[in-house]
Write a structure and sequence with these properties.
single chain, alpha/beta, 12 helices, 52% helix, elongated, binds guanosine-5'-diphosphate, cell membrane, GTPase activity
């Protein structure tokens, strides 16, 4: 929790400062309430959350004025309510091999998250195989191989420019033949062309189903918190092209935009399985609604 609080300190400090700056009058008036709502929206928490907190404060505090502390208390409670239903651990992964398709825009932290997760699953006694189906970037393939060495997991990779679906197919075949518990498939997240992205992911899914009709068992979308409102568009896009089953939100260390996770939860209600709080192998934390809410609200 200390690491989370430290990581989210930029989000909560900015919020506290901005709240103190607008809550200067003895009594609340509509202008002050407008400013309060603005502060919350600018903290990326989403319009719904901002309106709700405003109306609670207005109802309870109108004749008394409100301190930043009082607002933070209300905010903490409201954020907890929104995050509680989405804070869900990873599924038990009873299917063998359990196939994860890992999707997201390039640079959000897909490969790193796969490495961290492989490590976590292995410490739970699971045997993990990785597949480098982002075949467009040589660096992505290399990066996954480095993680594979670090966590001692085999990496199935083809040459740059080869068919991503072929890599996914070989990855699943290898996982089946070697009796792996979990297969994690890294994919390319080029946004230049939505129909290309859709075709590519659809083809990967199609070939996986030739070997295992239920695959993929999970579609994990990796989102970068520092992209703020953009992350909302990314959820929408990947929902359409890949049918997301769960989220990991990365780079929550040292960003002032941690509030975006609340807006995502409110808008989509997708499970958040874990959060990324650094570049290291252990910098992946389970997602706890109350801890997160209190870390943001300060
Ligand atoms: P990909 O293109 O989606 O596969 O992204 P990468 O996994 O290559 O990550 C892009 C950059 O973000 C790398 O420099 C990672 O070390 C960094 N990164 C990934 N996750 C986190 C995180 O939780 N916190 C921080 N600070 N950096 C991260």
């Amino acid at each position: 929790f200390a690491q989370l609080r430290e990581g989210l300190s930029r989000t909560s400090n900015a919020l506290t400062e901005n709240l103190s700056a607008v809550l200067t009058k003895e009594k609340l008036d509509e202008d002050t309430l407008d400013d309060l709502e603005d502060v919350l929206i600018r903290a990326d928490l989403g319009v719904e959350m901002a309106e709700r907190v405003r109306s609670i404060i207005a109802k309870n505090r109108y004749d008394r004025g409100a301190s930043a502390d009082a607002v933070r208390q209300v905010l903490g409670d409201e954020v907890t309510k929104v995050l509680d239903p989405v804070a869900q651990p990873f599924p038990a992964m009873a299917e063998k091999p359990f196939v994860w398709l890992v999707v997201g825009v390039n640079g959000t932290g897909k490969t790193t998250t796969i490495g961290k997760l492989a490590h976590r699953f292995e410490t739970q006694g699971k045997k993990v195989t990785l597949a480098a189906a982002d075949t467009f970037r040589a660096a992505a393939i290399d990066q996954l191989k480095i993680w594979g060495e670090r966590v001692n997991a085999p990496v199935v990779a083809h040459d740059v420019g080869s068919d991503p679906a072929g890599v996914a197919y070989d990855g699943l075949k290898r996982a089946q033949e070697t009796n792996a518990d979990v297969l994690m498939i890294d994919t390319a997240g080029r946004l230049q062309n939505k129909s290309d992205l859709m075709d590519e992911l659809a083809k990967i899914v199609r070939v996986l189903k030739k070997l295992e009709p239920e695959a993929p068992h999970g579609v994990l979308l990796v989102l970068d918190a520092t992209t703020g409102q953009n992350a909302l568009n990314q959820v929408e896009l990947f929902q359409q092209v890949a049918g997301v089953t769960g989220l990991v939100v990365t780079k929550l260390d040292g960003t002032a935009r941690g509030g975006i996770l609340v807006a995502i939860a409110e808008r989509f209600g997708l499970p958040v399985h874990a959060i990324g709080v650094g570049e290291g192998i252990d910098d992946l934390e389970s997602f706890d609604a109350e801890d997160f809410a209190r870390a943001i609200a300060g």
